[in-house]
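We store sequence with structure; for instance:
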Amino acid sequence: MAIEDVSELEQKEHEDLQQTAEEIALLVLLLMSNGKKGVASLLAQQGELISTNENLTTLLSDVDSLLSEEYDNYTDKTMGIIESTIAALVLSGKNILADEYSLKMKNVKASDIYNKVLSKPMLLESGAITVEEALATVKAGDISKIKNVIKLGFFEGQNTGEIASTIEQILGGRLQNNSTTLAKTIANHVGVTAKTVIYEAQEDIVGYQWVSVMDGKTSDICLERNGKKYYYTDKYKPRPPAHYNCRSTIKAIDGVIR
């Protein structure tokens, strides 16, 4: 089974989650743009060179405060997008259950799904990690990298313009790509967690089937799990995302437990 084999309603739901990822990715662009401008401004205030160790210490503290505020703002807005996405997923879940399984969805609160999205870790190949932990890890890692660039530039005698140029390249390159990848992974986690909560609330849903996007970019683990069925009575129940940038989802299994 692949994404192309699910119903039109489920395909539409999958496309809506891709839109969620794009909205979070746009926040990443804003974060990086504000970060570049803010750090460049702080560096410019130092003049051509960061002249003393004391100035370096003050600058690093100011950079930490500025970037922390930007990343916290990004996290808050990301959580807002997650909340609005969940509200839409509850409606689409209700329609899918009625259309695909002739089931009337039992009461599922969007707030319950939101809490599960935050509390349930993403079961990635690299390890289990919650959304909040992942965002905090990115924040701490990115800020540390930027501060290290500034410290290295100071001790190598680089001027502030050279340091700012290096930071602009980093924020616009690897760090932006990493954050965009995380945005896609979070969107996938939101969708799968919403389905999981909705499915588990229905007496006639006994498990779920793994559904992968089958193309030249499909990972080995998603190829291996595609089409596999996992019942709520099973001890081992992996769920997407299986890795960063995972595009797999799940489909309900209805019927009598084997």
Notes: Residues 3-204 form a domain with the Four Helix Bundle (Hemerythrin (Met), subunit A) fold (CATH 1.20.120). The radius of gyration is 22 Å. The helical segments are 8-44, 53-101, 110-119, 131-155, 160-172, 174-200, 220-225. The chain has one domain: 3-204.
